[in-house]
Amino acid sequence: MDYKNLIINGRSVRDFKETPVEKSIQEQIESYISGSKKLVPALDLDLVFYENSLVYERLQGVAGYKGFMIKAPLYLFLFSEEGDHDIENAGYVGERAVLKARDLGVDSCWVTFKSSDEVKAKLGLQTKKKLLGIIALGYEEAGHDKTVQGATKIGDSISRSKIDIVPEKSERVDLEEIVYLDKWGIPAGIDVLEERALFDAFSFARMAPSALNKQPWKFIIDGGRVILCINNEDYSGSYENRIDAGIAMLYFGIVLDITMFDSKWSFDGLNKEDYGVPSDYTIVGYCSI
Description:
Layout: H1 3-8, E1 11-13, H2 23-34, E2 45-51, H3 52-55, E3 74-80, H4 86-103, E4 107-111, H5 116-123, E5 130-138, E6 146-148, H6 160-163, H7 175-178, E7 179-181, H8 190-195, H9 199-205, E8 217-222, E9 225-231, H10 239-259, E10 264-266, E11 281-288
Parallel strand pairs: 7-8
Antiparallel strand pairs: 1-6, 2-3, 3-5, 4-5, 8-9, 9-11, 10-11
């Protein structure tokens, strides 16, 4: 898979044709995820596909944009046992499934919902696992608007000029504003990122979607660690932003995986006071590099 082009050409589609998604595509997504890295491997997470006939009408008012359910031929549900960082893990794994679907020519959109228990009750599902994600899958209805996350097709490397070409609908904060060196507030600088072969990874992490495009993350490079911090308002207790944190960790890590070495995120052992992280931010985790 060409992960870089899949990320930079990412889009969220909300209007789908009625054309079914082939069973073979579902099987390929399942196979890909079963053999892929998870953010929290210890958590048991299941991916289950449901067709429109079961989902769409029953979830009106309890899922979708402001209660209006997104109509798609197929939905991917992520069920997980509960545990630390379970929502971030669902974002990480679910977005991997989105990338694989995109690679197979299938469009997608994350669907928000109010309550795991309410959704399960509406669908008559008996699983004890918690529903942590719904992704609509299908083929875009021609002529409808779509939200585009990236616009430029690129190869294995990225130039500074190309990475700054971002569509008008998705303006991105400059890297100098989100990547610090050693301590909070000390910009790492593009030259430092290039010298440490981290420019690509941060550039793609910057492209991660976020609720209302708030882009609430900051990174601190501390020797062999890259620390992810997120604004408390956008993270603590927020389902959407914890999903977004998982996606940001995926985008950063997946580029390291293909350009440098196998990445691994951890979640404990760091004190934010040691890095001067302000009170309105929290440390989510760190990636060993």
